[in-house]
Amino acid sequence: MSYKNLCKFIDKLEKAGELKKISTFADPFLEISEITDRVSKDKGPALLFENNGSDFPLLINAFGSEKRMCIALGVDKLDDIGAEIMDLLKDFSSPKATLFEKLKVLPALGKIASWMPKSISGRGECQEIIMPEPDLYSLPVLTCWPQDGGPFITLPVVHTKDPETGTRNVGMYRMQVFGKALTGMHWQLHKNSARHFHAYKKLGMKMPVTVILGGDPVYTYAATAPMPDNFDEYLLAGFLRKNKVELVKCITNDLEVPADADFVIEGFVDPSEEFILEGPFGDHTGFYSLADYYPKFHITCITHRKDAVYPTTIVGVPPMEDEWLGKATERIFLSPIKMTMLPEISDMIMPVEGVFHNIAIVKIKKSYAGQGRKVAHSLWGAGQMMFNKVMIVIDRDIDVSNYPEVLKVMSQAVDPENDVFIVKGPVDVLDHASDRFAFGGKLGIDATDKYTEELEERLVMDIFIRVDIQAILENFKEVVEVNDSLKNLGLLVIAVKKDRKNHIRILHQALMKQGLIRNAKFIIYTEHVFSIGDFADVAWRVANNIDPARDCFFVENENGEKYYGLAIDGTRKYKSLDGFDRLWPNTVTHNPETIKKVDEKWDQLGLGAFLPSPSVKYHKQLYPGKAVAEEDV
Q1: Burial class (CB in 10 A: 0-12, 13-18, 19+), 368
Q2: What is the dihedral of CA 63, 69, 74, 76, to 10 degrees?
Q3: DSSP secondary-structure letter at 40?
Q4: 183-236 per-position pLDDT tens digit
Q5: Residue 283 known to be catalytic
Q6: CA-CA distance, 544 to 570, in Å (whole number)?
Q7: Catalytically annotated residue among 148, 260, 283, 547
Q8: pTM to 2 decimals?
Q9: Which domains does the chain have, with CATH numbers?
């Protein structure tokens, strides 16, 4: 279904019991973010802050549950969209032997035509009010986290156009506010808008850019979707809402935007101009993305609806609202991958603990030797899947979202020496653990049942870990905790207070040589600053902190034979201890002052029983420093 405007979506959420309106004043500077973090991690409702110091209500956490994501996209289940895509693909890809069968495709063609975006004349509702002078400070733009470089627009739908082909791109790139009419434009290295930018730079031309906020919620989702190059995101939006998107021309440039948007921010980027230092920003990885230089976006005009609502979001340590935007992409784009590239895939999940790009679990229907490896390499070459860091491929008929079952399969089907493979390739620009910017290692784990051709002579019959925890703690004082609660699944976690060069490799070598660990398939080393009994935190932190090419390794005995079990060094990397030359970011948390303010205000917010701040749990994980952690060990 389509929504005429963001207010209609808000009404729908309220009728479904998925929205809370807050009339008590809440400050866009840190306070709204802290309130939302509590509600979001408690799986609470969307929030409409009606009293925020501006003339516009602020909507946040609108996509923060599966139910609300389904309401936004007009479906009962997210898998329904993938099933519909599958049916369309089948209509067009199946052979048509007779004229009648060919004619049956015409209704599908008609449907697709009805979803194509349409330009309309005149002004849209998004242009009912034209600001006399563009002023971003009139909007309730959030400063999300204490070490952020400033306020950030976090749900901008950014429109650009290829200067040579005229092809439109709609993407989402955060925008730091530097003045009434100036922001940064954080389009990253691999994004289409960055490619457009370089095309304008080559031509020596200024680049028109327009940003919308709000309107039908499918616009926001479509801007985040991993669409192929030259595919119009507003065709995807039309398909999702079952109604074409009506576009109007901007006032100060020639780009077109949805007529029913809440805000339109028009302007340009001058490729000849020096970049501006943007950031830091508390990012979806749960760590700060550090300051870097990005293009300036100069604003020439701001328009809005009469009843405009300002939509925004916050990201940080998962789970948060962006989990469900990612989940929608996972379910929607699984079908095209299956139909067009890898028909053997039957399911796939990207756990929120892996912040989407760090971990993927793929289930296949295996029919030949090496197929698990083939699928992993194929996915690493497919669009935004190139950013994946750890990929696990299974072929047993289990629910891939049942992580204990996945671990059980890995314990039974994986020989670490022969079924684990490491390659190098592109990684997300937000990855802080790779030795080089946007380039690092990827870990593949073939957890499929093996054909005869794939088996090696060396097999370990006893899959159960044998670990002498008492001896480890007594003889290795740097070891703070050992968690062997998953030893029946071949997994061991060890928390270490790291304080010398090559500490983890030396420690692992000693533990294996003395026989204190036997038959563990995966030995994960973490820092001592958090509880290793919380496996969600272990997965989140370790996946962020590893470059598999550097941090996943085997050690050998004096005869040059590998000890059984893959070591994974999930600790922070230091220049002095690890030769790591890049800056290391801090964990994203709120400060005690903001937490205290919200604690004292909680009863006035009408949000029910008191919810403590999630940040308190992570305070002990903070390193000395601010957004950038200090080198001090």
Answers
A1: exposed
A2: -150
A3: H
A4: 999 987 777 888 999 999 999 999 999 999 999 999 999 999 988 777 889 999
A5: yes
A6: 8
A7: 283
A8: 0.94
A9: 6-76+116-311 (2.30.110.10), 327-451 (3.40.1670.10), 466-578 (3.40.1670.10)
